[in-house]
Amino acid sequence: MVRAPCCDKMGLKKGPWTHEEDQILISYIQKHGHENWRALPKQAGLLRCGKSCRLRWINYLRPDIKRGSFSLEEEETIIQLHEMLGNRWSAIAAKLPGRTDNEIKNVWHTHLKKRLKQYQTKPDNTKKNLKSKTKIKSEPSTTSHSESDEVPSSSSEVVSSIIDGSDHREDNNMDTWECLVEIDESFWSDALSSDESQVPSLSTDNIMEPNYTFGENLDDSMEFWYDLFIKAGGSEQGFITQF
DNA sequence: AAACCACCCAACCGCCTGCGT
DNA sequence: CACGCAGGCGGTTGGGTGGTT
Question: Quick one: A196 and A111 in the same domain?
Fold first, then answer.
């Protein structure tokens, strides 16, 4: 089928919003809400398309928007959620009150991605040929890696060191604690579901075997999956049931 | 002071999905 | 079932801004 243009651009304004336009949009939404974005600009007297209005409201004018730079905790949360969810910015934004998907996306591309890239770069980059739907840096097992003081003991420690740039683990043997896995999309959506009765569809079939370097025995692997499961919002009972 | 450069972020674009008909 | 519309999402862009030479 032939798709109609997202909006009729004839005579509609584009580009940065003026203060006046903002005021019109705010007062209209305060009075009438925003049940129909397409009709809204016409009714409000704005020469914008509905999409543009929606974006402006969602990303900038909404009263509950938190302005200003991201805190360390927020950055840490973004990194952790990105590990779990990938580029699902709206899902990540849902876990950060007052932050928009657009804002998080920007922060990721301008700050966090670079830091992670730096962090993940190592002279002998054996992972460059690996492909994955979801890249996950596993939390090191305290049992399997306790022999090395150089290996951080928790994911938050890892993430903090990435954020503050103090991490220098490329000097160490990252292969012992890093792995890349492929996970069924439904795993995350199920795990994040508020419905307790839903059990995330974990399957070891989804593990990309050649890349699966984490854990030297089954217990370590289970610990890894358990941790991811809980991080993704799954319950302990759900994990037990699944396995 | 001017030119250049790099970075940031608001906004746009196109695709996807859900829903009503 | 097919179609069309509206909303939502992620990727990308380009103007603005601040830093450097």
Answer: yes
Q: Give the domain range for residue A33.
A: 19-61
Give the type of residue at A89: W
In a domain, A184, yes or no: yes
Q: Does residue A175 share a domain with residue A89?
A: yes
Residues lying close to strand C (Cβ under 7 A), chosen from 136-195 of chain A, are none
Distance of C1' in B2 from CA in A60, Å: 35
A55-83 tens-digit pLDDT:
999 999 988 888 888 888 898 899 889 98
Residues in CB range of A91: below 8 A, 6 or more apart: A81, A85, A192
- Written as six digits, the tokens of A81 are 């959620």
The whole-chain average pLDDT of chain A stands at: 62
A76 and A24 in one domain? Answer: no
A154 with A192, same domain?
Answer: yes
Q: How far is the CA of A9 from the C1' of C3 (A)?
A: 23
